[in-house]
Design a protein that fits this description.
9 strands, mainly beta, three-stranded antiparallel beta sheet, 1 helix
């Protein structure tokens, strides 16, 4: 598991961001292509609600929406799209080795 406060969906599955999506100009960018999304599953509106381990009222003000090319709408944290990892199967799982570009989403 991961220590500290981090974002999950309502069922407790960990949410992640890709640091390549950081955008100081405030524009939402998306670097995870169709191949990437077989491993990193976009967290889409309508699937669930965003929750947090350890409550904060400021979280909702940081959430935005990204309309994707396929017409689906993905949650973002600030300018960074949120993702699930394909092998996280139960609440609290952080099973990815993450690598250099992926991080657990933190409020």
């Amino acid at each position: 598991g991961s220590s500290g406060t981090y974002l999950t969906d309502k069922s407790g599955l960990t949410l992640y961001v890709n640091i390549k999506d950081e955008n100081p100009a405030g524009k939402i960018s998306q670097h995870c292509d169709a191949q990437c999304e077989k491993t990193w599953l976009p967290y889409l509106v309508g699937e669930d609600e965003v929750a947090i381990t350890g409550s904060t009222d400021t979280l909702l003000s940081k959430l935005n929406l990204l309309e994707r090319a396929d017409g689906r709408v993905q949650y973002t944290l600030g300018t960074q799209p949120l993702y699930h990892y394909v092998n996280d199967l139960k609440a609290g799982d952080v099973t990815s080795n993450l690598g250099a570009n992926w991080h657990v989403a933190k409020p």
